[in-house]
Amino acid sequence: MSFAVEPLNAETVVLHVGKALDFRNAAEFKSLCQEYVQQGVRNFILDFSETGILDSTGLGAIFSLYRQISPRNGQVVFAAVSRPVQVVVQLTRTYKVFRQFPTVDAAKEALQE
Fold it and tell me: What angle do CA 71, 75, 81 make, to 5 degrees?
């Protein structure tokens, strides 16, 4: 169970989260993001279209990424948020930190402005 990454340009990647981001794969998510951050990527579009599970560990991994790239004016944005992820986002008020877009394409456009 790994994540599909689609580089857009030197600074931006789309990360397709897949079925779950939870305690089982949060460490993998963090190390993957770390590799991209070291290569100079500072914008991450997280595609949640197929995600059925997002737990506190997964959320923690996303916040960890956010803290790494914020000093570089980087952004983490959520795209195509599935219903289960939306519930978590609402409960944790995560929407106050991360912008959300209806589709990956909408997120790409917003980040390329």
Answer: 150
